[in-house]
Amino acid sequence: MKKVLAIVLALVLALSLMSIATAEKAGDGLTIGIVYKQSGNAYFQAGVSGFAKAAEELGFEFMHDGPEDSSNDGQERIIRNYIDMGVDVLCISANDAAGLVDVCNEARAKGIVVLSWDAKVDAEGRDLDIEPASAKAIGVQQLESIAETMGYEGQLAIVSAGATAPNQNLWISFIEEELKANEKYAKVEYLGVVYGDDDYTKSYDVTKSLIDKYPDIKGLIVPTTNGGPAVAKCIMDEGKVGQIKMTGLTLASDMAEYIKGGVADATFLWNPIELGYVTAYVGVAMANGEFEAAEGATIEVPGFEGLEVIPSDDGGLILYLNKLNPFTPETVDAWIDIL
Amino acid sequence: MKAKKALSRFLRWETMLIVLLVVLWLVFDAKDASLQAARIAKGRRATDIFNFTNMLNGMGPYLLYSFMALGMSLILGMGDIDISVGAIAALSASVMGTVYGPFKKAMSPGLALALALLCCVMTGAACGFLNGFLVTRFRELFPMIITLGTQLFYRGFCYLLLGGDTLQYKDDAAWAGLKKLYSGSVSIGGLSVPTMLIWFLLLALMFFVFLHLTTGGRRLFAIGTNRVTARYSGIRVDSFELCMFVICGVTAALSSMFYVGSVSATVRADAMTGYEMYAIAVAVLGGFSTGGGKGNIVGVVLSVIIFGVMKKGLGTVFGLPDSTVNLAVGLVLIASSVLPNLLEDLSNWRRVRRQHAEAKLS
User: Fold this and answer.
1) How far lies A321's CA from each of A110, A137, B177, in Å?
2) Contact criterion met (CB below 8 Å) for A142 and A248
3) Bridge-partner residues for B267, per DSSP?
4) Which of residues 245-284 of B touch A (CB under 8 A)?
5) What strands, in cross-sheet order, belong to the sheet with A245-248?
6) Does B325 contact A at CB distance below 8 Å?
7) Closest Cα partner for A88 from B51, B47, B311?
8) Which of A269, A313, B58, B302 would suit a FRET pair with B170, their CA atoms being 20 to 30 Å apart?
């Protein structure tokens, strides 16, 4: 009964569509299911807009959803629905890396490509993880930005989070390595790291004593979103705008007034739109069998260079965009509602 | 006469649930057919989204709260409520996960898991006991408020045990058995039936026998109808009620075992948040009211299926976001709790009119 009905309706629709000629696109006939951590989250809506941009170019269809309560089982439910609906690719930003492994493997057993983006699914449950930037890229990009602002000379210090914060310490180790290794930073005098413990008052105080101790300091790197506004406020309060510039990983909303006030030429964070865009390209290429997630495999995505699959720390495969998004006095306003 | 009337009322409610189920099914099936037609017209392969096999195999997520719903039925039948069952389940799972590690060092994995499962059930029972004790000891407080307090307490306890971590025993065969518990299936007449569904139906059968075929069930409904009368008829209300809360806690613990399997055998402190509301919703749609004194387990089983079909159908063939599906579920729930009252009003109005007419004739 259902089949007969389906065929009749299909014929009617086919006739009505006959006149519309369509160009072949790489993603024609593919459906991508996007699952994120939580519905109504601006960060992931921005990510989905990246998928939408790719969909215009590649012609695939997509659905997106997240549980309202950021739960594991909510994501599991959505993934199961998407499997039933016959998606070809699942792009998942997991609330819990370990918790979705089983349902993801069920999907893979049915021939669905499973990618994780922004927040990984554990290695045994995914084909590929796609993340904004490697630790090295994050460190080096902040260094290059502030060095350029400083004219590649003068005193530079770092205001970090806690002394044991693993991410920050990793980034800082790459900054320090690059400072030593790269000739162009020879005239930059590196003063070392102080710790604000991700606390507003403490970050403000350590910045103030740093400025008191080194009155000629020219640059500050703040690789933590919680420290950025405090450091910027301190620079303003001390009347050092213009002399001291900062950069770092910050949110646009926290930093807009300071960036426009001249405290920073640019601060950075990853760009969820580009992350969604690249994830979509990878998903389509994998579903078409044009690209296989294997160590050393590379993929062409418009506007990106050197996208290469490398082994990740958890024993799986990962692909970094290695492109951070700058918030400059001109662009920061556009990002306030997103990041 | 009265018994016959009561029986017919129950039958009517269950009949309505069956009608609702059939209507939902037909709507989803038709929508699916039109979707497939659209796909074929676009030159794409058709995927039958909504059918019996998919629904049967995909029942898992909608059965997780069904065990709690059985326990909740007992509580609602007595005119009480327990909104801590979600937290009880999370705590039971947290305890199970926490003790398994040390147990495993001391004994064989199989035995360690058996003991951990026992601890899980015991935790559920202990939480239920505390709820029951507080409810029966402090009659002046609403059970809703008491279990709101215990809910926060149990949930806080989970965070005390686990913090923000996810607990997982990777590559542990015994612990992975929990996954089997959730996603395993047996072949019955060519259909692969989830074992979880069989467990649920077995438990539902036990509850049916207790509630509708034994004196225990009659006592329960007597308490729900009028606690004071029940006490004067010789029912030991407090201890009976306490027992029911313990059973409710145990069903929450049973839910948690399956839940752990559903999320790749991981345990987190924030697990099963909000499940108490699903459990209450299922029990109420099944015919149990918060007023107490009525309800039928057959209705609860039907209501579990209806919730599953509705959520699955709205989420897949209608493509509604997960968060929006609850809107439709809420509407059905409101309708189901209002409808019986409306029907009763209608029959009252009819009776009055008939009496008026008879009076005129004479």
Assistant:
1) 28, 9, 39
2) yes
3) B167
4) 259, 262-266, 268, 270-274
5) A188-195, A154-160, A219-222, A245-248
6) no
7) B47
8) B58
| CA distance readout (Å), B73 to B28, B78, B289, B291 | 29, 9, 9, 12
Query: B32 lies in a domain?
Result: no
Residue B313 belongs to a domain: yes
CATH number of the domain at B85, please: 1.10.3470
Separation between Cα atoms, residue A51 and residue B156, nearest integer Å: 39
Instruction: Judge: B264–A100 Cβ closer than 8 Å, yes or no.
Output: yes
What's the complex ipTM?
Answer: 0.85
**B166 to A96: CB separation less than 8 angstroms, yes or no:** yes
Q: Residue A217 in contact with residue A246, Cβ under 8 Å?
A: no
- Domain residue spans of chain A: 26-132+272-323, 135-269
Taking a C-beta distance cutoff of 8 angstroms, is the pair B37, A5 a contact?
yes
Contacts of A24 in chain B (CB under 8 A): none
Residue B17: inside a domain, yes or no?
no
Residue-by-residue pLDDT tens, chain B, 362 positions? 556 665 566 557 888 899 999 999 999 999 999 988 988 887 777 788 888 988 998 888 999 999 999 999 999 999 999 999 999 999 999 999 999 999 999 998 889 999 999 999 999 999 999 999 999 999 999 999 999 999 999 999 999 999 878 888 888 888 888 888 888 888 888 888 999 999 999 999 999 999 999 999 999 999 999 999 999 999 999 999 999 999 999 999 999 999 999 988 899 898 998 899 999 999 999 989 888 888 999 999 999 999 999 999 999 999 888 888 888 888 888 887 787 778 778 888 888 888 888 888 76
Under 8 Å between Cβ of A321 and A244 = no
What are the distances in angstroms from CA B64 to CA A203, B61, B200, B304?
47, 6, 9, 10
What DSSP character marks residue B166?
P
Contact: B264, A67; criterion CB under 8 Å: no
What is the pTM assigned to this prediction? 0.81
Interchain pair B323, A17: CB under 8 A: no
Q: Judge whether B338 lies within some domain.
A: no
Considering only the beta carbons, identify the residue of B45, B61, B265 that sits closest to A76: B61
Contact at CB, B323 and A68, closer than 8 angstroms: yes
Question: Which residue in the block uniquely carries the two structure tokens 């997960």?
Answer: B322
Cβ proximity of A328 and A259 under 8 Å: yes
Domains identified in chain B, total number: 1
Pair B306, B17: CB distance under 8 Å? yes
Determine the CATH number of domain A135-269.
Answer: 3.40.50.2300
Spell A252-272 as b/e; 16+ CB within 10 A means b. bbbbbebbeeebbbbbbbbbb
Domains A26-132+272-323 and A135-269 share a fold: yes
Q: Which residue has the tokens 């839910």?
A: B255
Range of the domain at B262: 60-318
Could you give the CA distance from residue A298 to residue A291 in angstroms, rounded to a whole number? Answer: 8
Distance CA A53, CA A274 (A): 9
Q: Which CATH number fits domain A26-132+272-323: 3.20.20.70, 3.40.50.2300, 1.10.3720.10, 3.40.718.10?
A: 3.40.50.2300
